């Protein structure tokens, strides 16, 4: 007889961290492959769709890189907030807030027209940051759970956007509820490879800034202290509340910047559906990257490739649209299992009965 004892690890060696991450990803990919094989796909089909089309075919690579731009930014948003254990489930609402703030600039002619694009980017970051900052203040001052507040703020932002698109901002010359099209000076330039636009530089710059902030700056050190033990951090003089508010606001600003890249780089106007289906992918990306800003870039490209392959599978193999979400869930679950094994150790202890 015996029992299983689960105890937290005092320290985990880097080799174990790498092994659990690679093991979790490998297990997730294996289970996903088996799942797709049961849907009637062959191994050659999987290789051609997930590797060939998404990374070697020009059309597939174009779609992958274009999708990776906002995914990188929302992934950074969740990752930065997780650095202080702030659960940001409201990236869609912050994305909408950023898109709305950016759209106000051309619609109301705010600032000199030659610099409208930069004003739109700044407005988007302010809008998204304020949208998430309100939830951070609610947690700090009212002890409101940020999972609930950030999630509910998604609906507020979405309904506000619909109200404007069906009302004051609707383009009377278009039969669909969209705003007027932006001028060429108010859109992100294409880079000459399909639909890939200059927003990719915003995403890469944001990743580098977040890496510097989290790894090399004083704020990053204080964020690690707050995440490890808020009471101990406050005891040694770290302004824990200010650090949480700063990181949460930065996370919201990154989501707002994602909204800016969509309306200025892809749609060139405000539409109804710019902020759909970003909550779950952002969480998957942040966890796959283990909140590493540079790792977020790689994870975002991988998730974007998954979406690109998923579109192809729907078109040519008649697979349901939920296939991509299922694969994301499998990967996230396997990575979380690996994270559990990294943080906890399991020992089988034999029990011996002692007779009196």
Automatic annotation (TrEMBL):
Annotated compartments: Cell membrane
GO MF term set: transmembrane transporter activity
Transmembrane portions of the chain: 21-44, 64-82, 94-111, 117-140, 152-169, 189-214, 235-258, 278-307, 319-342
GO CC, one annotated term: plasma membrane
Superkingdom field: Bacteria
Transmembrane as UniProt keyword: yes
Membrane topology of this protein: Multi-pass membrane protein
Main location: membrane
Keywords from the named record: Cell membrane, Membrane, Sugar transport, Transmembrane, Transmembrane helix, Transport
Coiled coil: none
Protein name stated in the entry: Simple sugar transport system permease protein
